[in-house]
Amino acid sequence: xxxxxxxxxxxxxxxxxxxxxxxxxxxxxxxxxxxxxxxxxxxxxxxxxxxxxxxxxxxxxxxxxxxxxxxxxxxxxxxxxxxxxxxxxxxxxxxxxxxxxxxxxxxxxxxxxxxxxxxxxxxxxxxxxxxxxxxxxxxxxxxxxxxxxxxxxxxxxxxxxxxxxxxxxx
Length: 170
What we know:
mainly alpha
């Protein structure tokens, strides 16, 4: 539990993910939570089968992106630490996205006039927070400048969310 709390502190821009050494059990639990929460969110947004496929594609792209990045900069030994840090951040945001979906459902049921604006605002906030978390992880882990970390976070976001979304539209 203490390891989870340490990783969650990254979502509040505290600690350095390079200081954490995740166990194999913890890493698999993080991946399982990532898959389950992603499937829930995507299943609420679209068809459950399509949502499941998109989450699987995102997972493959996430592992591939992190792998290629670490191979290029010759830091492969940091794979477990980096992917765990990023996935815990994604899991945190995905949990908030599930809550936002539940709130959206409640607003639909109550015929809230500003439902769409609130939902879009929450979505934008969660994406910005997600990018900030991933950027922070890159910055802390590799001591990159903020601008380089933001560019890497945006690139990671496009690779892991954009490409699977484009694939699903085909």
